[in-house]
Amino acid sequence: MTFPRDPAAPGLGTSAPAGPPPEPSAGTDRLRRRLAERTADLKRVKAEYDNYRKRVHRDRLAIRQIAVSNVLTALLSVLDTVEQARAHGADDRAFALVADSLRRETAALGLLPVGEEGEPFDPRRHEALVYTPSHDATAAVCTRVLRRGYRVGDHLLRPAEVAVTGPPNAAARPAPPPAGRRFGAVGPGQGAAHPLR
């Protein structure tokens, strides 16, 4: 690399005074354009990589939530059995330790119960198995939880099966069956409709 000589340096002699800077040549303009293009390419590649990282992160979280939901859905029958045993008086200390440990570990994975007595009936979270009309009621309310429902985050694993008490006019309007269940027709002397599997 060479450096321009300083005309005022001793022993270098005199040289012509420096004039105005030379006008940019076509080569310099071409280099500036190529530099601007490469800079734009680099910014575009960086933005694409940032988007890719964010998408991979979202996908990993979604896959994790699906995996956790699948495991917890498989454990719902175990939780139901534990709850039934408690309701029937199984209060053995060893049983209580196992039940509490199971409940604590599933809660750590994000499993939350759905359906409490006294909360307003919500067809997105509850499945009404029994409806009792009451002139005192102003809105449909869950009066008894027949089988607890569960959710993970915003994802409902299973709706709570509940008994509902509400105004008499609400009983006259049948609610549509929950998604995934079809009900057969009721014939003479058959009583209530039974779910078809």
From TrEMBL:
It comes from the Bacteria. Gene3D superfamilies: 3.90.20.20, Head domain of nucleotide exchange factor GrpE. Keywords: Chaperone, Cytoplasm, Stress response. The keyword Cytoplasm applies. Residues 1-31, 166-197 are annotated as: Disordered. The keyword Transmembrane does not apply. It is found in: Cytoplasm. Transmembrane segments: none annotated. Participates actively in the response to hyperosmotic and heat shock by preventing the aggregation of stress-denatured proteins, in association with DnaK and GrpE. It is the nucleotide exchange factor for DnaK and may function as a thermosensor. Unfolded proteins bind initially to DnaJ; upon interaction with the DnaJ-bound protein, DnaK hydrolyzes its bound ATP, resulting in the formation of a stable complex. GrpE releases ADP from DnaK; ATP binding to DnaK triggers the release of the substrate protein, thus completing the reaction cycle. HAMAP family: GrpE. Belongs to the GrpE family. Homodimer. This is Protein GrpE.
